[in-house]
UniProtKB/TrEMBL annotation:
It comes from the Bacteria. It is a multi-pass membrane protein. It catalyses: ATP + protein L-histidine = ADP + protein N-phospho-L-histidine. This is Signal transduction histidine-protein kinase ArlS. The chain holds residues 199 to 451 of 451 of the full protein. It comes from Fodinisporobacter ferrooxydans.
């Protein structure tokens, strides 16, 4: 072998390579730990509806034939919990996909028009008033249309779920960024809970919200979508008064 002398320049390069490698390994380790945590949280969360379905099936088997009330309650609960489970699995897959794949379909579209279409879906389904406001008639953005639509649906869905009054969507465009906010005048979020609501599976007071049928995944998907667009998402909320979710996305061309 011919010994190749390592000059100080090479040493620097080697050190840099070593540091890059360590950083890469650290990121892989963190991502692996996140995935493991996700799998363990997911199986835990899926167990709850499954346990309820199992116990109501037992109830149905034992008393369903004699007791009409038991029969109705069991069927209703089994149905609700299966719907919730299906929704949870669908959202888990969406979240997993948004964290692992980086496929975007960027295109230019009108955000005001998309917001109006999304709002209309909820108005028809829930007979609620959703006001869409913007100083501009149309706001053209360059983004993944399907993902932004999903973001809007999640935010409107929450506003409708956790309030009974009007919901307001407001959009504006500055030279460098576009803002979007969804405001409701509903139950709001206690101050101490606010830092956690973007975490996966986090729900404020699970028992109180059981009837609203959420999964605790909506806002984490919303956050992942905003992050993919290099934007920011924040919330202002006062318990008993309402909430405002604010999204800011840099303009791209
Ligand atoms: P979920 O499917 O439970 O709505 P999210 O991730 O969308 O899950 O929201 C997490 C939690 O944050 C909800 O369970 C709810 O407690 C709270 N939350 C979200 N949006 C609102 C809102 N507009 N008003 C009051 N609470 C909200």
């Amino acid at each position: 072998f011919r010994k190749i002398p390592i000059s100080s320049g090479h040493k620097d390069e080697l050190a840099q390579l070593g540091a890059t490698f360590n950083r890469m390994m650290e990121r892989i380790k963190q991502s692996f730990a996140r995935q493991q945590q996700f799998v363990s949280d997911a199986s835990h969360e899926l167990k709850t509806p499954l346990t309820i379905i199992e116990s109501y099936t037992n109830l149905l088997k034992r008393w369903g034939r004699q007791d009409q009330n038991v029969q109705e309650e069991a069927i209703q609960t089994i149905h609700e919990e299966s719907v919730r489970m299906k929704q949870m699995i669908h959202q888990m897959l969406t979240l997993a996909a948004s964290e692992t794949t980086c496929t975007f379909t960027y295109q230019s579209f009108d955000l005001v028009e998309l917001a109006r279409d999304s709002a209309q879906l909820f108005e028809t389904m829930n007979s609620r008033t959703i006001q869409v406001k913007s100083p501009a008639k149309s706001i053209k953005i360059w983004a993944d249309r399907e993902k932004i639509k999903q973001l809007l649906l999640i935010l409107i869905d929450n506003a409708v779920k956790y309030s009974e009054k009007i919901v307001e969507i407001y959009m504006d465009q500055q030279p460098a960024y576009t803002t979007l906010s969804v405001t409701d005048y509903g139950i709001g979020i206690p101050e101490k809970e606010i830092p956690f609501i973007f975490e996966r599976f986090y729900r404020v007071d699970k028992a109180r919200h059981r009837k609203t049928g959420g999964t605790g995944l909506g806002l984490s998907i919303a956050k992942a979508i905003v992050m993919q667009h290099q934007g920011t998402i924040a919330i202002k909320s006062i318990e008993g008064k309402g909430s405002k979710i604010m999204v800011k996305i840099p303009n791209k061309t």
